[in-house]
Amino acid sequence: MKIPLVDLKAQYSSIKPEIDAAVQRVLDETDFISGSAVTEFEKSFAAYCGARSAVGLANGTDALQLSLLALGVGKDDEVITAVNTFIATSEAISATGARPVFIDNDPQTYTIDVKKIEEKISPRTKAIIPIHLYGQPAAMDAINEIAARHNMVVIEDAAQAHGASFKGKTVGTLGRLACFSFYPGKNLGAYGDAGAIATNDEALANRVRMLANHGRLKKYEHEIEGYNSRLDTLQAAILSVKLRHLRAWTEKRQQNASTYSQLLARAANIVTPVVHPDSTHVFHLYVVRVQHREKVQQALKEAGIATGIHYPIPLHMQPAYKHLGIPTGSYPVAERFASEIMSLPMYPELSADQIAFICDTLIKACQSNTTSKPV
Ligand SMILES: *Cc1c(COP(=O)(O)O)cnc(C)c1O
Predict the structure, then answer these.
(1) Residue nearest ligand 1's atom 7 by CA
(2) In terms of CATH architecture, what is 8-243?
(3) E-assigned strands of the chain?
(4) Domain 246-369 is in which class?
(5) How large is the greatest C-alpha to C-alpha distance in the chain, in angstroms?
(6) Domain boundaries defined on the chain
(7) Is residue 1 pLDDT above 90, yes or no?
(8) Burial of 151 from C-beta contacts in 10 A (0-12 / 13-18 / 19+)
(9) Does the CB atom of residue 269 touch ligand 1 within 6 A?
């Protein structure tokens, strides 16, 4: 049985007539930049998040960078973020001229450890970007409380968490603004690069919109110098079709996750994801921890099962951040987990049979490991 990490073909097959019709409509209208499909998608995506505004952008990395710029973050500022994330989060910080300041992850939820934030706040700290990692919201009440006390703005990196919620509030409304990616493999994925921000602050939304469109809101009048980071009309049309299915797909992901967790519960040496009682987790990724990971991955690969690692090298140990001079050992949780975490196949179309086969193979592969769980 061949099981990929993500199966984009299975999803396209299930909605092909709707997608093809939406694409054809854009081709017929030839309004490829800022066409009506963009405005329609922005409206429905804002409604989905329960936010007042959404602005479509070229990708999630730009969403982060333009959000920081719109909030006035720049040279000599510091921005706090988690050390276990995709490099896009810290790249966006550096691109504004600011410096990323990393925090270790919580050993239960793998999101930013709120107990370790305050020790890293300096007079230069302007903002904090918590990541809703793997699809689970960060502890947003504690983060907002710390941010308010230190006059920092909160930007959600919601690239992996479309539709997740914390204490009943949807991701996208838990900070000053939220950044989304629609990279094809994300829970809501375009057929190319795409992204967005969502916020209740309409003035801020307009500022991001202006930055993404050469510094203008009107055709020939440029208030400032900006960037070119608009959402393509074609991608917007595709995203609007897919957004209508997102709730159902998210439920399937959650069902798949609970099937995994039930089947893996009997294996004492496999750590399964913990969902915080205040959160709903949308399972962009289903991440377990095991010992002797390379050997386990190899056994799964031989059985046709793809796995991933998100992420194998904590950011402070990446060559790109050598200049920050952060010694190994600075982030003990992230460093230890980096050698144990493993992402199992996760997508809505994954079948119960496939999950059973993955769990059987995984449990067998871990049998020769020590019986103690990785702590
Ligand atoms: C995917 C991702 C991004 C970047 O999104 P792109 O659309 O690929 O630019 C940012 N942060 C996180 C946590 C991501 O997973």
Answers:
(1) 60
(2) 3-Layer(aba) Sandwich (3.40)
(3) 53-57, 78-82, 99-103, 125-129, 153-157, 165-166, 169-170, 177-181, 195-199, 216-218, 221-222, 279-280, 286-289, 341-344
(4) alpha beta
(5) 68
(6) 8-243, 246-369
(7) no
(8) exposed
(9) no
pLDDT in tens, 163-211: 999 999 999 999 999 999 999 999 999 999 999 999 999 999 999 999 9
Give the bridge partners for 289, in sequence order: 271, 341
183 lines ligand 1 (CB under 6 A): yes
**Cα–ligand 1 centroid distance for 60 (angstroms):** 5
Q: Which of 57, 59, 61 to mutate to test the pocket of ligand 1 (most atoms within 8 A of CB)?
A: 61
Sign of CA dihedral 346, 349, 275, 100: positive
The protein residue whose alpha carbon is closest to atom 14 in ligand 1 is 159
Mean pLDDT of 203-230: 95
User: Tokens 């019986």 identify what position?
Assistant: 371
pLDDT score of 368? 75
Cα separation of 177 and 149, whole Å? Answer: 18
* Coil, helix or strand at residue 363: helix
157 lines ligand 1 (CB under 6 A): yes
